[in-house]
């Protein structure tokens, strides 16, 4: 830990990367000349949509579970999540041979519930409010004695998510900017830490939906403004940014750019058409932000983390 801040150090992040090797894919970096032409810069897409459980969340969950003591593992792990963290934690628990209890809102996408069940997680449904998620989780933890592994506002999870950018830097590309989406801020926080430790002059910029723009508003106000009633097609980004992540963001992130749902859909479609890969709406947010602000990135080498590919194909927005 970095004494001053309690943020993971570069050494912590490298150790996490070693720790989770058996549990994750080293995902490829892909490029598209057609998209580069449209964007006016060179984009390197880090394809976490090819990650285990179909999202970067596999990293943080694996790291958090692997760091538990045997005593902590005895009663299993629990969390609340509407999607990718749920599946990631259920999978990490299953690999570690322990139980997982996942509180999910009743309106969570069916594909994400199926994934949790497939990894042996026990789903406890609740009404779709943060308050209900938290109180239901408290009851589950009390009943089972399981360890709560939060989806994003948790140092071991942030440390795991930070390994994604570490792999990008290991490719030897001199990035001018690295972009990630922001919801709870675990991926953005981890990406910012790794990037600023390795290359302090590289900019770290987030993309965020206009309908769930608490990180952007908090960033401008320099204080945490929780999101009330978020509404966006990017279902993975409906959550308010976490406290620890917000501290990291204020210290290490250069800008947060917001985009409309229409811009997200266009960016998503562009990736489907030009790269022939499946991504979820949340994943398209950074590219949408870049395309909306082309002059900001002109001629640069930009790394974009494609955060996940868990989309309900029956409900594609195009």
Automatic annotation (TrEMBL):
Organism superkingdom: Bacteria
Residues of the Tryptophan synthase beta chain-like PALP domain: 20-308
Gene Ontology biological process terms, A to Z: D-serine biosynthetic process
Cofactor(s) annotated in UniProt: Mg(2+); Ca(2+); Mn(2+); pyridoxal 5'-phosphate
A GO term for molecular function: threonine racemase activity
Record keyword Protein transport present: no
Xref: Pfam families: PALP (PF00291)
UniProt record similarity statement: Belongs to the serine/threonine dehydratase family.
Protein name as catalogued: Threonine dehydratase
Source lineage: Bacteria, Pseudomonadati, Bacteroidota, Cytophagia, Cytophagales
């Amino acid at each position: 830990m970095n004494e001053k801040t309690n943020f993971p150090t570069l050494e912590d992040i490298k150790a996490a990367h070693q720790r989770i090797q058996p549990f994750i894919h080293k995902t490829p970096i892909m490029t598209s000349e057609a998209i580069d032409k449209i964007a006016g810069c060179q984009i390197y897409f880090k394809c976490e949509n090819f990650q285990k459980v179909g999202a970067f969340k596999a990293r943080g969950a694996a790291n958090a579970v692997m760091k538990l003591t045997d005593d902590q593992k005895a009663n299993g792990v629990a969390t609340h999540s509407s999607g990718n963290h749920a599946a990631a934690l259920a999978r990490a628990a299953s690999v570690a041979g322990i139980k997982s209890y996942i509180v999910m809102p009743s309106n969570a996408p069916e594909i994400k519930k199926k994934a949790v069940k497939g990894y042996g997680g026990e789903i406890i449904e609740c009404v779709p409010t943060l308050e209900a998620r938290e109180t239901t989780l408290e009851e589950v933890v009390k009943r089972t004695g399981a360890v709560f592994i939060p989806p994003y506002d948790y140092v071991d999870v942030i440390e795991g998510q930070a390994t994604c950018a570490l792999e990008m830097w290991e490719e030897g590309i001199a990035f001018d900017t690295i972009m990630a989406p922001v919801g709870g801020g675990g991926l953005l926080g981890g990406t910012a830490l790794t990037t600023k430790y390795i290359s302090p002059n590289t900019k770290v910029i987030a993309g965020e939906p206009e309908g769930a723009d608490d990180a952007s508003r908090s960033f401008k106000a320099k204080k945490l403004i929780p999101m009330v009633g978020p509404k966006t097609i990017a279902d993975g980004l409906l959550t308010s940014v976490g406290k620890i992540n917000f501290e990291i963001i204020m210290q290490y992130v250069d800008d947060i750019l917001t985009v409309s749902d229409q811009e997200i859909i266009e960016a998503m479609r562009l990736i489907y058409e030009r790269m022939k890969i499946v991504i979820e709406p949340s994943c398209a947010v950074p590219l949408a932000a870049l395309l909306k602000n082309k002059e900001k990135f002109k001629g640069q080498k930009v790394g974009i983390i494609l955060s996940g590919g868990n989309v309900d194909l029956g409900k594609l927005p195009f």
